[in-house]
Amino acid sequence: MSTMKLRSKAKAEEDVVLPDDAKGPLIKTSNEKTDHQAGKTWGRARDVGFWSVLNCFVIMATCPFLVIYFWHACDAYKCDLVAPLSPLINAKEFSFNVLADWFIGCFPKPTQDGYLLFFGWLLFQAALYVFLPGPVGYGQMTPAGFVLPYIVNGMNAWVVTHILFFGASLGLGLFPASIVHDNWGALLVAANVYGYFLTVFSFAKAHLFPTHPADRKFSSSVIYDLFFGIEFNPRFGELFDFKLFHNGRPGIVAWTLINGSFAVAQYEQIGYVTNSMVLLMVLHAIYVVDFFWNEDWYLRTIDICHDHFGFYLAWGDSVWLPFMYTLQSHYLVRNPVDLSWPYFSLVTALGLFGYYIFRTVNNQKNEVRKTDGQCLIWGKPAKVIRTEFLTSDGKVFRVTSTTLETCVFPSAFCMTCGFGHVLPYFYIVYMFILLMGRIQRDDARCRGKYGKYWEEYGKLVPYKLLPYIY
């Protein structure tokens, strides 16, 4: 499969001017006055209809309960997704009171320890983000002309966090290493409180004291603006970026820490750690370490370059990412699985193959950008057509091999759990839905940006997801 990239003709850099709210070291714009609210070539939409607003409302109203339902299924029913409905199914007489009692009974109980652990964790990660050394990276130019700096110290934060956590727990015995597992329900409550607070705070900040007013985007709907966000890069000061911090630090740093805590809980329950849990931790660790090792690359991905900061990222990074992306470790505590060595080897090979595709393709993308197409792609010179695309041969696909990684690598995570229940496979189903949504968003954005060139590109690159299928 080939690597390709649309390229636009950049305007001359002479006689540049700065926007009125220009801050930071970088900023380069053309003299041409642009309405940054118009068009569909960056960020979220501005002109939205009833169904888009309704969709945002439904997601904000139901997704928190979906996470709680999954927690309840694991906590009380060993991760069986149907069993939690048994009180409703077996009720002698269905009524609103029965439904209300069942609904309330699904919720975890808030505790003082849960709040202290969560907000202590949040403040600790914020301190590491601010004070740990690291190089400064730069994102792509925003529509208002800002090329913002980011402190890239995620790997240092990950290492320091894990050394301190496991050193203090397993080494010094200051607290049980299973502390995350033991307080998982209470942590879920605290994370939801913070996720909703951050959503509302970011919405208010965008109106009252935005970081870069020219990079905001409004719609006619408060619900839509809450969900997708208004500010492009909300910040405290010049370097504390909401998007980079919340996605990388409380969320992805916690990913491997959560797995480790649940592995300790499994050891305490059955006297050993299963090979399925070990394999899951290794595969997740590969992904997490790769993310932080290449954190500068993340600055040029869709999250940073196109997404505004609203509920989608604020609550998603605080709750959805740490609680739903780690479902496999929760499952393996309640349902220990000892994999046969042939199956263990198969899943290992599948995971490593998925990672190889992921890393190879992203390295190729960076190489194309750095060399302006003067490089080899899969051993062949990259073919450059200036306002259209890059490709190494005539047989090309619209989405590169990263699509395979999106399916293959997460599939290996899920397969560590065997096939006893559906719940561990929610992650791959969600990733497929997420990918389909991003394909549509990218198509609309590129169609608005490149016009007839995108149509020509689509004829040469007809397959969006699966070669010869879709």
Q: Can you describe this structure?
A:
With 470 residues, the protein is mainly alpha-helical. The chain is 58% helix and 4% strand. The protein contains 18 helices and 8 strands. The chain has helices at residues 50-77, 86-89, 96-105, 112-131, 154-171, 179-182, 184-208, 222-228, 242-270, 275-293, 295-298, 302-305, 311-324, 327-334, 341-371, 402-415, 426-450, 452-460; strands spanning 136-138, 149-151, 235-236, 240-241, 376-377, 380-381, 383-385, 389-391. The strands form 4 sheets. A two-stranded antiparallel ribbon has the order 1-2. Strands 3-4 form a two-stranded antiparallel ribbon. A two-stranded antiparallel ribbon has the order 5-6. The protein is globular and about 60 Å long. Mean pLDDT is 83; it is low at 1-36 and 388-402.
Helix percent reads 55-70%
Uncertain stretches of 5 or more adjacent residues: 1-36, 388-402
Q: Kindly report how far apart the N and C termini lie.
A: 15 Å
Question: Using only CA atoms, what is the Rg?
Answer: 23 Å
Helix-strand string: HHHHEEHHHHEEHHHHHHHEEEEHHH
Q: Give a quick account of the main beta sheet: strands, pairing sense, barrel closure.
A: 2 strands, antiparallel
Class per helix and strand makeup: mainly alpha
- Which sequence of strands runs across the widest sheet? 1-2
Count of DSSP-assigned helices: 18
